[in-house]
User: What shape does this take?
Amino acid sequence: MAHPFTLQLSRRTVLTAATATLAASTLPFMAQAASTLSKAATMENPTIKYPKPPFETQSQPFPGLAGKMTPTPDHGETSYQGSGRLTGMRALITGGDSGMGRAAAIAYAREGADVAINYLPDEEPDAKEVIALIEKEGRKGVALPGDLRDEAFCEKLVEDAVAALGGLDILVNNAGRQQQAASLSDITTEAFDATMKTNIYAMFWLTKAALKHLQPGSAIIQTTSVQAYDPSEDLVDYAITKAAGMNFTKSMARQLGPKGIRVNGVAPGPIWTPLQVSGGATMEKLVKFGSDTPLGRPGQPAELASIYVQLADPQASYATGQIYGAAGGSGQP
Ligand code: NAD
Ligand code: MG
Assistant: This one.
């Protein structure tokens, strides 16, 4: 039996078809309105759109691969549809192999941008898939692996991206390290340093290097987190860095506003990515991941792709210094 939601959509589709026939014989603007209406037929109930907990316990060594997760995350591979919102723009996305970075990379390419991605060498299998997806859109896909904890590498990464893309208009500081630890005494100085270097220093180094190239109209986007506002007891070092990303977004928006460069952030809630299965969450938390949100499930990276597009889109020209939340109804902002 068809789901009641499907039935409702079928009636809408019939209505849309009738309107289209009428419009075709009257005015062109009415035909346009009808085609806009027909888009509503892709409406889906967000509570049942994607897998819900309980999830299988699963663990991978850091940094993990999206391709080895069960269920496999959705980054919009088969669903994201572009409409030319970023035509001709050039983007560098860190952590572009998997998770939110991969969803942004796919969406940017489908919106007409050329995209360079950075990732760790161990993530080559995920990265290869992303480059193939970008190239399938007829866009340039540039793979630039390397460790962001190194200042010289960050500078080289930006220069290599600029050389390969012919310039830079969008920088997405998205790479992140999250390793849960029950007690402060479980966080070694080495681990603390790795989290700070990956999540804060790299953002600083990359932005500084990118500013030599970004022109008015460019956009910088940070992936921060609900952890910036509402930190968990076992993510102390990580949450510090996400608060730093949120704060950096706001100070840099003020500094760069007069130069015409916009700076915004995305604050995801629980999203189904390798970060969570490679030390980011306990198995206890992973099994019920996302169950405490009003939508009753974790988000999928694909569900955030349009936010990354919106923040990069020159049409969002008055949005700067903002943090856009996507937390399934819980968390802040
Ligand atoms: P992910 O594992 O897919 O992405 C993180 C990426 O960071 C990795 O793919 C890796 O390429 C990169 N990375 C880590 N250390 C690196 C290093 N030293 N050098 C170069 N690259 C490195 O997971 P994700 O969840 O999509 O993470 C993307 C961003 O989203 C992170 O900043 C994370 O803090 C943030 N975030 C995630 C969640 C969530 O629930 N998944 C929630 C809020 C915020
Ligand atoms: Mg990855």
